[in-house]
Amino acid sequence: MTFRVNHQSSDNPARCPYRVVVQATGREIDWINQYLDYETVRRLADHTLQSYANELLYFLRWWESVHRTHAIAKDALTESTLLDYVRFLSGQQPPLSGSTINTRIAIVDKALRHLFPDAPNQIAPGFQKISWQRAPMGIGRPRLALSRLRVRTPKRTITPLSVDEVARFWSSFRTSRDLAIVGLMLLQGLRSQEILDLNQDDLLLPEAQIRVRGKGNKTRFLPLAPEATQLLDHYLRLERPANSSPALFVSLKGSARGARMTPAGLRSLFRHHRQTSGVKIANPHRFRHTFASDMVRAGVSLPALMQLMGHANIQTTLVYMQVTPLEVYQQYARAIAQHIRPVPVSRS
Q1: Domain range holding 75?
Q2: In the chain, is it the N or the C terminus that has fewer CB atoms within a 10 Å radius of its CB?
Q3: Residues 119, 190: one domain?
Q4: Which of 110, 125, 140 is the last residue of a domain?
Q5: Do 93 and 35 reside in the same domain of the chain?
Q6: 191 assigned to active site
């Protein structure tokens, strides 16, 4: 049996627009869609709901291939169910990253617990244990935490673009719109989805500010760099069609002219310019990493960087606080030069 994710617009704010259905008949997979509706009531972002639907679709296809049914019965779940799914994911080609596997397992885990709330110990009980979790930065009291099934992931390292790579990629662009998009990533650290979600009225150019809707529909106001203001002004005056949608960044050609730019369009844009410029590692998130690394080198404080990046957890921001041995020496030398030290007493 073949399954797919359908997008169905609805006036009901409690109904998820993404539905997992049987492709041949359109019949809904109730246990998945009920969970998606639950997350919709929690007001998760639209693209997050779409991601949840796709991840649960992958699990459904695996479950049906093993059990010959798309229905999930309580007595069919065992403590090895998620582990078997991990084994399956680990054997995929090309290999999936550890973080991708952990994300898929976490979403399935939550959905199954929502489906069977009276059987929490039946879902991977061998991997659960109660432990004390330290508060972030050691501030506050420790709290009880329940461990989950996870695979080990390598330590995350941040590799920003070099000055030469930024210059080569930048020089490959020809339109004001594309320059403005890359400028917001490089000078403001915006995520690709945040850029696509921008509306024209989110620009407060007289105040040199921009309103950004980040993850979890959280809004933050950011200062606009003078260069970013200039790039946006050029795009608005020279290229943006007059009869466009409320979206800030829109398609400039074809039948979709004036419509909001899509994620596929943005991916195509970067793919083309990676080939044109020869900067193979240039992607939207790499520019965001470059912005954060530049802010750290410029001396921006951790709380300020957390606000600029739109992080909900300071641990996420700490990834960018990478200090080289040379920087440690230089900072120590500066500090010790200003330190008040006792004057040695000369002995005659």
Answers
A1: 3-125
A2: C
A3: no
A4: 125
A5: yes
A6: yes
Report the percent of the chain where pLDDT is more than 90.
54
Has 7 been annotated as catalytic?
Answer: no
CA distance 222 to 209: 6
Residue 348 lies in a domain: no
Tens of pLDDT, residue by residue over 260-310, are: 999 999 999 999 999 999 999 999 989 999 999 889 888 888 889 999 999
The mean per-residue pLDDT over the stretch 88-112 comes to: 91
Active site residue 311: yes
Query: Which residue in 211, 215, 220, 234 is the catalytic one?
Result: 215
Phi, psi of 29 (to 5 degrees): -90, 100
CATH number for the domain that contains residue 58? 1.10.150
Residue among 19, 70, 104, 191 flagged as catalytic: 191
> Does 108 share its domain with 231?
no
* Candidate list 27, 285, 297, 334, residue with the active-site label: 285
| Percent of the chain clearing pLDDT 70 (strictly above) | 86
Q: Could you say which of 240, 260, 286, 288 is catalytic?
A: 288
Mean pLDDT taken over the chain: 86
Whether residue 266 is contained in a domain is answered as yes
pLDDT tens-digit series, residues 192-210 = 999 999 999 999 999 999 9
> Is residue 133 included in any domain, yes or no?
no
Tell me how far apart the alpha carbons of residues 267 and 263 are, in angstroms, rounded to a whole number. Answer: 6
Pairing, β 143-146 against β 130-133: antiparallel
Is the pTM higher than 0.85? The answer reads: no
Q: Of 55, 161, 57, nearest to 99 (Cα)? A: 55
Whether 215 is a known active-site residue: answer yes
SS3 sequence, 119-176?
CHHHCCHHHCCEEEECCHHHCCCCEEEECCCCCCCCCCCCCCCCHHHHHHHHHCCCCH
Q: Domain containing 203 — which CATH number?
A: 1.10.443.10
